Amino acid sequence: MKKNTVILVVIGIMTLLGLPIFVYMNETSNLTVFSVPDGFQYDKIKITNVYTNDTKNAVFVDVISTTPEVDQDGHPLNTTSKIVSASIKDVNGKTVAIEDLSAFVPKGETTTLSFYYPLPTGNYTLTLHTNRGSNFGSPSFTVENQAWSPMEQIANLESSRIASLALDSSGYPNIAVGDRGPFLYNSSLRYAVWTGSSWNIQTVDSTKDAAIFPSLALDSRGYPHISYGDFINGVWKLAEWNGTSWNVQTVNSKRGTGGWTSLALDSRGYAHICYEDRSNHALKLVEWTGTTWSEQTVNYTRGDAEWISLALDYAGNPHISYQNSNSPLNYELKYAEWTGTSWSVEIVDSIGNAHATSSMALDSNGNPHISYYDETHHALKLAERTGTTWNIQTVDSGGKYDISSSLGLDSYNRPHISYVDDLNHDLKFAEWNGESWSIQTVHSSNIGQCTSLVLDSSDHACINYRNINSRTMVLIFQS
């Protein structure tokens, strides 16, 4: 039986039974036409003041490309192309419903709908329509392009391979770096913060060959805390700004601990620091209780524990990713979490004769996401755990993608990764749009190993890296 026949039969039965018949017309609002200029990409479209007076009203969003696609000879293939992939969120960032590009809008509420989708250069129309009769209020929309700002080179700040980056409440970048000395290691620990008009650069620890592998975190006052290894003395230290001066302390004075560290601050501003104890082949965690340091062994590694990445969940429980090299031919990516009573340690990926460098972040549900480099397969990978299951996917492959990456999750829990193509010395940036990876070469040539990435309150990336020619730190912003 055809669909129209079924509808007529239903209407006839309702008429015989004396039931009221409501006919809802599809309402359409063609907001406007916009263009993406050459060389730019618009990723975020926000529609505001969307209103409905119907409890079951679904609002659909159409983004139509009016730039015809062409074949290799330049002949048009079609006149319009509907873009049908987006994540619909309400004004609080919560998923309200997804049906293709649709959202159920609560009755009587004014809602903001926003979604991400990379749009190539071309012309577009944006249309709202409903499947029931109701009004939209007075909707308007904005589009935000994800172009990259010009490079900001930090003068007088030479650097080693690794730096640590954080943004304060004003969105200003703060950087901890081992100022470059001769050879691989560093001459001093330095800290740079953007004041809004200039860089304020301070020497935190001038100990010769101190400050390898710094890790920076800002407390609720915006005060910096930095953990780092003191290579020359074989210990690790903690430097904290009290508002007027730096307090530098050697938390663990036992030699053989001056390697990898990772720092996180809890809701009280207390420091939690994970570090490598090479003398005992162990991964350890120290936590400030308010009066003293408490230390525990996370895992005995039977080898080096490197590329440590520490994060605290909402309950303050630590989660740690790290590379464990049991032998020169056996590298493993491991993940450890505190369950409340004990440590749970598992192997995420067995890499083999390669470096499983890691960068970890926790999503809003407390699930870990880890980016890492699989040198055996020349691939940048992402491991994500839901429940007890790890899902591992290849983000980029076919090149030599440095020995590290830096991972951040946006307000939609979508991963963004900065990394270096060490073969071509290119800075690259990968972001998940909900269905696939969008990969860009942000800057070409003269990029040194290791980058650090953070996302601002608008989910735009800020990335720092090292210029191998000038040996200085460089910042670049997604605008």
Write the layout of secondary structure elements.
Blueprint: H1 3-16, E1 28-36, E2 42-51, E3 58-65, E4 69-70, E5 76-78, E6 81-83, E7 102-104, E8 110-119, E9 122-130, E10 137-145, E11 152-158, E12 163-167, E13 173-180, E14 186-194, E15 199-205, E16 210-218, E17 224-230, E18 235-241, E19 246-252, E20 261-265, E21 271-277, E22 282-288, E23 293-300, E24 304-312, E25 318-327, E26 330-338, E27 343-352, E28 356-362, E29 368-374, E30 379-386, E31 389-397, E32 405-409, E33 415-421, E34 426-432, E35 437-443, E36 447-455, E37 461-467, E38 472-477
Antiparallel strand pairs: 1-9, 2-8, 2-10, 3-6, 3-7, 3-9, 4-5, 11-38, 12-13, 13-14, 14-15, 16-17, 17-18, 18-19, 20-21, 21-22, 22-23, 24-25, 25-26, 26-27, 28-29, 29-30, 30-31, 32-33, 33-34, 34-35, 36-37, 37-38
* Residues in helices, as a percent range: under 10%
Radius of gyration: 26 Å
Instruction: Decide which structural class fits the backbone.
Output: mainly beta
The profile of the biggest β sheet is:
5 strands, antiparallel
